[in-house]
Each structure stands twice: as structure tokens, then as C-alpha cells.
Amino acid sequence: MNDFSDVTARRVPPLGGFSLTLLRIELTRMLRNRRTIVFTLLMPAAFALIFTNRQDAGSAAGSGNVAAYILISIALYAAALTAAATGAMVALERATGWSRQLRLTPLKPVAYILVKVTMALIMGGIAIVVVNIVGAVEGKAVMPTHVWIFGALLALVCTVTFAALGVFVGYIVPGENAMQILGPGLAALSFLGGVFIPLSVYSPVVRDIAYWTPMYGVAEIARSPLTSELPWYAVVNAVVWFGLFVAGAAWRMSKDTARV
């Protein structure tokens, strides 16, 4: 009786099934996907080269220049898009019945979500590193070393919001349609939220709308080491949207009982 109990206990994975082995398998699977390479490596590098070659790239901006301001913004956008795409992989797993199959294993739902979010952070971190390397090699961006470091770290922290968004969308949109929504959606929100274009360029009406978008708060936070400015309402914006996306992902996962 005791032996049987011991064997049964050993079958229950620690941490609900969350492990480095599972992360390694997921990372290998992601890096074999060509779309992932495009989102994580090629597209961020291209954006960094294109947007930092503006005529006013050398103009002063905070403790650096405009190119530095743009570089941090591009790193945030690339990480957000990559993290959202990684999180949205649950849509394909649901479409193939894989997520339903996982329900038959000891893997806990919370551990499954943690694996997805961790993977999104890893992939987002790679995108941030790629953008910063391109910026450093190109030489247009000028800012103190601590701004490079803290700007990258804050962008990575903010990436969690979009990992949650990706998981949320992955649970409400079937199959590959998830990225067809997330891609253009994040691009539009980035333009409106002041990621690519300073809000001062917009009319007061558009600016008031921008303050409510998911990209506004995280962009202000990521750039705060450079600008030395961080409005309190930007922090509230980021926290509220993070909470909404996490709550949405948790809600939809609890309702997910059928194969899409």
C-alpha cells in the first residue's frame, strides 16, 4: 500500500509540470518555425535600420538623441509583437487538439500558461537584444550606457503585458487567424500610442484617445530612462491593461473545454 502510494506521488510533477526541460522543448520548437525567425530576428533588425535613419536622428532627445528614442521604441514594439505571437500559439495548439490532449496529462493549466508567458519573455528578450545590437553597430543611437541597459530591461518587463494579450487572443480566435489580428492590431496601436510617432505631433483629440491605448503606458515606461519623464497615468495605463489581459486569458482558459 505504501509502495503504491509512493509511486502515485512520484507521478505528480513538481510545480504542476513547469520545468526547464519543457521550456527547452518549447524553445526548440519555436526556433524551428520560420515565422518566428522573421518576427524575432529579421523584422526587428530591419525596423531598427529604417527608422533610425531619419534626418533628425541626431537631434537631442532626453539624455540621448532621437535615434536612441526610436531604438527603444522599436525594441519595445518588436518584443511586444514577438511575445504576442508566441502567446498566440495556443490558438494553433487548440486547433490541432494539442491543448485538449495536455489536459489528460499531469500538466496543470497554470503551469501551461507560465510556460507560454516565459517563452514569450524569452523570445521578446531575443528581439530586444537584436534591435540593440543593430543600433549599437549602426552607431546612430547615442545614449548613456545605463540608459541602454535600463531601457532594454523595462521593455522586457513590459513585454509580459503582450504575452498575456497573445494568450488571450489565442483562446478567443481560432487557428492562424490570431496573428492576422494581432499583427495589424499592434501596429495600429503602436502608431496611435506614440511608439513610432511622438504624441505631440497629434491633434489634442487623437492624443486624448492615445492615452487610453495599451501601447501608451508601456512605451512611456520603456523610454523613461532616456526621457527622465514618467507620468503617473502612464504607469496606471500599463498596470490596468496588464491586469485586463491576464484576467481575460485566465477567463478564456477556464472556459476552454472543446477542440476548435
From TrEMBL:
<dbReference type="InterPro" id="IPR051784">
    <property type="entry name" value="Nod_factor_ABC_transporter"/>
</dbReference>
<feature type="transmembrane region" description="Helical">
    <location>
        <begin position="185"/>
        <end position="205"/>
    </location>
</feature>
<dbReference type="Pfam" id="PF01061">
    <property type="entry name" value="ABC2_membrane"/>
</dbReference>
<dbReference type="InterPro" id="IPR000412">
    <property type="entry name" value="ABC_2_transport"/>
</dbReference>
<dbReference type="GO" id="GO:0043190">
    <property type="term" value="C:ATP-binding cassette (ABC) transporter complex"/>
</dbReference>
<keyword id="KW-0472">Membrane</keyword>
<feature type="transmembrane region" description="Helical">
    <location>
        <begin position="66"/>
        <end position="92"/>
    </location>
</feature>
<keyword id="KW-1133">Transmembrane helix</keyword>
<feature type="transmembrane region" description="Helical">
    <location>
        <begin position="36"/>
        <end position="54"/>
    </location>
</feature>
<feature type="transmembrane region" description="Helical">
    <location>
        <begin position="113"/>
        <end position="135"/>
    </location>
</feature>
<dbReference type="GO" id="GO:0140359">
    <property type="term" value="F:ABC-type transporter activity"/>
</dbReference>
<keyword id="KW-0046">Antibiotic resistance</keyword>
<keyword id="KW-0812">Transmembrane</keyword>
<protein>
    <submittedName>
        <fullName>ABC transporter</fullName>
    </submittedName>
</protein>
<feature type="transmembrane region" description="Helical">
    <location>
        <begin position="232"/>
        <end position="251"/>
    </location>
</feature>
<feature type="transmembrane region" description="Helical">
    <location>
        <begin position="147"/>
        <end position="173"/>
    </location>
</feature>
<dbReference type="GO" id="GO:0046677">
    <property type="term" value="P:response to antibiotic"/>
</dbReference>
<feature type="domain" description="ABC-2 type transporter transmembrane">
    <location>
        <begin position="21"/>
        <end position="224"/>
    </location>
</feature>
<dbReference type="InterPro" id="IPR013525">
    <property type="entry name" value="ABC2_TM"/>
</dbReference>
